[in-house]
Automatic annotation (TrEMBL):
Family: Belongs to the peptidase S8 family.
Cross-referenced InterPro entries: Peptidase_S8/S53_dom, Peptidase_S8/S53_dom_sf, Peptidase_S8_Ser-AS, SBT, Subtilisin-like_FN3
GO terms assigned for molecular function: serine-type endopeptidase activity
Domain of life: Eukaryota
Keyword terms: Hydrolase, Protease, Serine protease, Signal
Gene3D superfamilies reported for this sequence: 2.60.40.2310, 3.50.30.30, Peptidase S8/S53 domain (3.40.50.200)
SUPFAM superfamilies named among the record's database cross-references: Subtilisin-like (SSF52743)
Domain Peptidase S8/S53 residue range list: 18-100
Organism from which the protein derives: Oryza brachyantha (malo sina)
Descriptive protein name: Peptidase S8/S53 domain-containing protein
One Pfam family this sequence matches: Peptidase_S8
Domain (Subtilisin-like protease fibronectin type-III) ranges: 170-257
PROSITE patterns, per database record: SUBTILASE, SUBTILASE_SER
């Protein structure tokens, strides 16, 4: 007589690997044409993604798999915040991204040799939809500013006052300096989209060989003051030719604190994190 035995189910997943991780084929920065604009902006799932094709399904990898994830997040954010501009949506995604893997360790990048990922690998980090929905502060940009910085090439027949300022003066949630020969000061404007009556304090992690100062170190928002500006001064500490080094400027308030040991389910909210890339050249 046949005998059946019922046992608890086991999930077989194979060898555990840290995730997320930047794939070896993923495009890297810096931007060759515009090195003063940090690229890439964000990282998203793009390896072995189940995708539909004409006669069934297939696992695919690449930008074509990662892009729909970001597009979906943007659609959800736009539905929740219909008045946000494109720049505001991008800012929310970039500044809320995670730089830790599922074990709370720094995200790795597949390369030769393998290394800890940096902003030239993943931009702001791995996309975090829940964090992007409530970023606290956003960096917004007037569309006309793009046209000015790109010498009126976007809309040639539109009235435009050409500026000679480099693109790192755009109100982006990042700063990229390809040749830091002398102190440089940039200004950023942030808009409070979170709770009313909040106070944000700055926390600086300076790149190796670079001193960063922020003024003011504290931003105060209330019902009548929703926008604040701050200035960041970056100065080389020594004259030596070197590669890019990275740091960050993070704004915190009492409701959003950084926990270095946070698990993926409790990611710290890197409010307005400015990734700073600098190259020291004599």
């Amino acid at each position: 007589m046949p005998v059946a035995k019922i046992e608890p189910a086991d999930s077989i997943t194979g060898k555990e690997v840290p995730a997320p991780k930047v794939a070896i084929f993923s495009s890297r920065g810096p931007s060759i044409e515009y090195p003063t604009i940090l690229k890439p902006d964000i990282a998203a799932p793009g390896v072995n993604i189940l995708a539909a094709k004409q006669d069934g399904y297939v696992f695919n990898s690449g930008t074509s798999m990662a892009t729909p994830h970001v597009a979906g997040v943007v659609a959800l954010l736009k539905a929740q915040h219909p008045h946000w501009s494109h720049a505001a949506l991008k800012s929310a995604i970039v500044t809320s991204a995670s730089t830790k893997d599922e074990y709370g360790m720094p995200i790795l990048a597949e390369s030769l040799p393998r290394k800890v990922a940096d902003p030239f690998d993943y931009g702001g980090g791995h996309i975090n939809p829940n964090g992007a929905a409530d970023p606290g502060l956003i960096y917004d940009i007037d569309p006309m500013d793009y046209n000015k910085f790109f010498a009126c090439k976007i809309k040639k027949y539109e009235i435009c006052n050409i500026t000679t300022l480099p693109a790192y003066h755009l109100n982006l949630p990042s700063i990229s300096i390809p040749e830091l020969r002398h102190p440089i000061k940039v200004q950023r404007e942030v808009t409070d989209v979170g709770e009313v009556d909040t106070l944000y304090q700055s926390s600086i992690q300076s790149p190796l060989g670079v001193q960063i100062d922020v003024e003011p170190p504290t931003l105060v928002f209330n019902a009548t003051k929703k926008v604040n500006t701050f200035k960041v001064t970056m100065a080389p500490l020594w004259k030596v030719q070197g590669d890019y080094t990275f740091g960050s400027l993070t704004w915190y308030n009492e409701h959003h604190t950084k926990d270095p040991d946070s698990s993926p389910d409790h990611n710290p909210r890197f409010l307005c994190g400015c990734c700073v890339a600098m190259q020291k050249i004599t």
